[in-house]
Amino acid sequence: MPLPTLSYRRTALRPAAVAALMLGASALPMASAQTTDADATQLPAVTISGRKSPAVSVSGWGDLPLSQVPLQASVFDAQTLRDQGIQSVRGLTQLDAAVGDSYNAAGYWDTLTLRGFVIDNRFNYRRDGLPINAETPIPLDNKAGVEVLKGISGMQAGVSSPGGLVNYVVKRPLDVALNSAFLQWQSESSVLASADLSRRLGETGAVGLRLSAAYETLHPDIEAADGNRWLVAAAGDWRIAPGSRLEAEFESSRQSQPSHRTRDGSGSAAP
C-alpha cells in the first residue's frame, strides 16, 4: 500500500506587497486614536497645594522639618495666631490640648501648663533660643511664631520643666518689601491696631529693617479691669558676607491693667 505524500508550497511576497501591508497596519491605530481624541472631554485643571512641615529653631536639628526629627513639638506661625485672634501666649490653650491654663487672670502675666506640669516663667521660656524671664506680659505683635516643645523634648534647648518649654521667634527683615496694617475689634469694645513694615536697603539689599508697632485697649468681661497696652519694636540685619550676618533688635512694651480691686477702689497694674 503506497504511503500518502505530503506537499506544501511556499509563496514569497514581493517587497512592495510587504510595505503596503505594514503601512495599512500602522494606519489603522492612528485613525482610531484620532477618533478617540476628537470625542474626548477636556477636564478642568486640578491644582494641588500643600504646606511644608515647619522646623523648630531650638530643636538642635537645624532646618530639618518637624516631621523628620524625634521631637514632640507644636509650631504656630504669626498667620495662624492672627487668624485665631490670639494676642498672648495664653491663647495657645485654644490650639493645643497639651497646653493648659495655670492662672491667667486679667492683669497678670501668662502662666501655662504643659502636659499637666506648670511652666516656670523664670526658666522655661526662650526668645530665639535664649533664656528670658517671662514674669511680664509678652506681646506677640512682633513675633513670627511660637514654638512649644513638649516633655523631655524641651531639653533640646537646655534645662526645662518636665512638661516642656515655650520659645518665641522674633520677626526679622524679609527679602521682599512688606507693608501691613491690622485693625481688630472684639467684644466689650476691645480694639487692636498694629502695623508691620519690612525693607531691604542698599543696592544689593545687604541691610534689612523690620518695624512693628501695636496699641490695644483692653476691656475684658471682668468688671473694673479695663486697661491698655502698646508695643514698639525694631529688628535689623547686615549681611556682611555670604554665610555671615549681623543682627540687632530693640523692643519696648508696656501693659497697664488692674489685676485686683483694693478697699479704696484702686488696683495694681501689670508692669
Folded structure, characterized:
The protein is mainly beta and 271 residues long. Among the domains are: 71-170, Beta Complex (Ferric Hydroxamate Uptake Protein, Chain A, domain 1), CATH 2.170.130.10; 178-261, no CATH class. The chain is 11% helix and 37% strand. The strands form four sheets. It has a five-stranded mixed beta sheet. It has a five-stranded antiparallel beta sheet with strand order 9-10-11-12-13, with no helix packed on it. The protein is globular and about 70 Å long. The termini are far apart. The model is unreliable at 262-271 (pLDDT under 50).
Topology:
Layout: H1 15-39, E1 73-77, H2 78-83, E2 99-101, E3 112-114, E4 117-118, E5 125-127, E6 130-131, E7 143-150, E8 164-170, E9 178-185, E10 191-201, E11 207-218, E12 227-241, E13 244-256, E14 258-261, E15 267-269
Parallel strand pairs: 5-8
Antiparallel strand pairs: 1-7, 2-3, 3-4, 5-6, 7-8, 9-10, 10-11, 11-12, 12-13, 14-15
Attribute tags:
disordered C terminus, Ferric Hydroxamate Uptake Protein, Chain A, domain 1, 2 helices, 11% helix, single chain, mainly beta, 5-stranded antiparallel β-sheet, 5-stranded mixed β-sheet, 271 residues, 15 strands
The CATH architecture category of the domain at 71-170 equals Beta Complex
Provide the β-strand percentage band: 35-45%
Return the CATH class of the domain at 71-170.
Mainly Beta
* Helical stretch tally: 2
- N-to-C SSE string, H for helix and E for strand: HEHEEEEEEEEEEEEEE
Total E-strand runs: 15
Across the major sheet, the strand order is 1-7-8-5-6
What name does the CATH topology of the domain at 71-170 carry?
Ferric Hydroxamate Uptake Protein, Chain A, domain 1
What's the story with the biggest beta sheet? 5 strands, mixed
Share of residues in helices = 10-25%
Give the integer mean of the pLDDT values: 80
Structural class: mainly beta
